[in-house]
Amino acid sequence: MSDAVLTEEDGAVLVITINRPEARNAVNGAVAQGIAAAVEELDSRKDLSIGILTGAGGTFCAGMDLKGFLTGDNPIVEGRGFAGITERPAEKPLIAAVEGYALAGGCEVALSCDMVVASREAQFGLPEPKRGLVAGAGGLFRLPQRIPFHIAMEMALTGDKYPAERMAELGFVNRLTEPGGSLAAAKELALKVAENAPLALAATKKVIVEAPDWSYAERWQKQGEIINPVFVSKDAQEGPAAFAEKRKPVWKGE
Question: What is the pLDDT of residue 2?
Answer without folding.
Answer: 67
